[in-house]
Amino acid sequence: MASFIVLAPELDGQRDDDKTVFVRDGFVLFAFILTVPWLLIQRLWFEAAVIFGSMVVISGVGTYTGHGDMAGFITVLLSLLVGFEGNNWRIAALERRGFRVLGVVDARNADDAETAWFLGENFVSSPEVSVSAAPIPSLQISHKPVLGGMVGLVSHRGEN
Q: 117 and 17 in contact (C-beta within 8 Å)?
């Protein structure tokens, strides 16, 4: 599942739900492959100009000094930076345009995130509990409950 940051503009002190934007948090493959066009499509004009200018300067310096391979490597690293930070720059640009961060939704895709956001708790159905006829024998083992999940890149089991 991916996390989506929910942003919406405010008009006259009230939220405009028609213009709500869901931005996926994480790496953007298209921003890595097509760096400058992706920035232009996302209307990140300043960032596109800075990245394009940097790529031209890096390429020129690499050609002039005879380090074309190193210039290519640095350009790929710059594209990788845009792939990782592109959506954060997009969120910052939306905030400068008057959008406000409303929350975070975990969903598989943007359509599911939109459905979960606007339907709220009505979207999550509570599963029915089935009661078995035979009682389950209780075990005399006591243990701490184990919490699953990840913290960064390290697994966290919830034990101290």
A: no
